[in-house]
User: Which sequence fits this backbone?
């Protein structure tokens, strides 16, 4: 969703080529359920409405909801839901036995929250094509060992394969934001089982601890969380990971190994 009302963080997509590229990135949706986050004035909705078997648009702006409902009144496959996406049970929007496709121009100020919300409903999701501030997209797709790799990177990548598609300049939106925007494709595929992690919530808490102070070592962050020097030493020895390493240097597999050891 992108703003007539600055408080909603809206910058409406007006680039015709971009809206088609985003819709095309979903692939064949003729037999699919698609959830659009914040359709705004319907720039992408207009394309999806003629392609999707079922399109559910979740829009927070109460001024836009009646506009959208009127515009797509002759599309029985389109449903416009007035709701906060972060308070929406996405799984409940997907028919039993199916996996939905998600698309959206995410409000900059809650992008991370929305990504984590999608991950929480991963079991009902197959693919998401979402646009966000370029700097956030760089963090989401960052590789271990790079400056941008952090808690958001690790958390999302435990739930999905992340691929960058393209970047748009401010002029692609109205009003133009002060930043560039990048479209990412997330293909949901949990890595918890693959990496031997049985308790997902406990692992998420562990990641938060490891990245608590990004520039501090694992030893310092783990000690601050209450682990003893002996616990940390034994776990690091068992996992073959140095306690003096920083979290940004670890791969997801190494995080999982250290988590099981500690």
Assistant:
């Amino acid at each position: 969703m992108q703003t007539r009302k600055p408080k909603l963080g809206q910058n409406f997509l007006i680039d015709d080529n971009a809206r088609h590229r985003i819709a095309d990135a979903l692939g064949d949706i003729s037999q699919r359920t698609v959830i659009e986050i914040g359709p705004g004035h319907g720039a992408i909705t207009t394309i999806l409405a003629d392609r999707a078997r079922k399109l559910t648009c979740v829009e927070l702006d109460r001024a836009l909801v009646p506009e959208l409902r009127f515009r797509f009144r002759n599309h029985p496959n389109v449903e416009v839901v007035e709701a906060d996406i972060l308070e929406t049970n996405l799984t409940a929007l997907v028919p039993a036995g199916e996996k939905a496709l998600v698309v959206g121009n995410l409000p900059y100020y809650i992008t991370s929250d929305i990504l984590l919300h999608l991950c929480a409903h991963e079991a009902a999701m197959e693919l998401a094509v979402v646009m966000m501030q370029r700097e956030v997209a760089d963090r989401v797709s960052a590789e271990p060992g790079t400056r941008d790799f952090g808690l958001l990177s690790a958390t999302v990548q435990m739930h999905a394969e992340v691929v960058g598609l393209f970047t748009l300049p401010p002029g692609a939106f109205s009003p133009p934001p002060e930043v560039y925007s990048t479209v990412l494709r997330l293909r949901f595929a949990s890595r918890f089982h693959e990496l031997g992690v049985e308790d997902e919530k406990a692992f998420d808490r562990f990641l938060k601890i490891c990245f608590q102070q990004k520039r501090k070592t694992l030893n310092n962050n783990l000690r601050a969380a209450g682990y003893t020097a002996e616990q940390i030493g034994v776990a690091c020895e068992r996992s073959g990971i140095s306690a003096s390493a920083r979290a940004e240097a670890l791969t997801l597999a190494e995080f999982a190994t250290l988590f099981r050891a500690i």
Summary: Confidence is low (pLDDT under 50) at residues 1-7. The first strand starts at residue 12 and ends at 13.
